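Hello,

Our lab assistant flagged a job as stuck in the queue for most of the afternoon. It eventually completed. Since we weren't sure the result was trustworthy after the delay, we are filing this so someone can double-check. Below is the sequence as submitted and the structure that was eventually returned. Let us know if re-running is recommended.
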Amino acid sequence: MLEQILDVYVRPVLRSHGGDMKVISYENGILCFRMSGSCAGCSAADLTTEQLINEELKKHLEGFREAVLVNEVSEELLAQARAILNKENRK
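-- returned structure --
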């Protein structure tokens, strides 16, 4: 149900800005998620969380309490950085 609500009410808005979100966990009404694409690291991400994600989930998901943005570097991005550094070190 959570993913369906995100797909209908939240992700289209994020995608219109070149971004997206990934659910990390949803327990006891608390959604932990990470922004991706151009939304990752965006200075407006906190505002997006408060205005878009919290409001839409409160309207459409019974038992929802809060959305928490997790700011961490993804393993994929770390792997890309390591590959670039390794390539540079071989030169």
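-- support follow-up --
The delay was a queue issue, not a problem with the job. The result is valid. The domain at 2-90 is CATH 3.30.300.130 (GMP Synthetase; Chain A, domain 3). Residues 34 and 74 are 9 Å apart (CA to CA).
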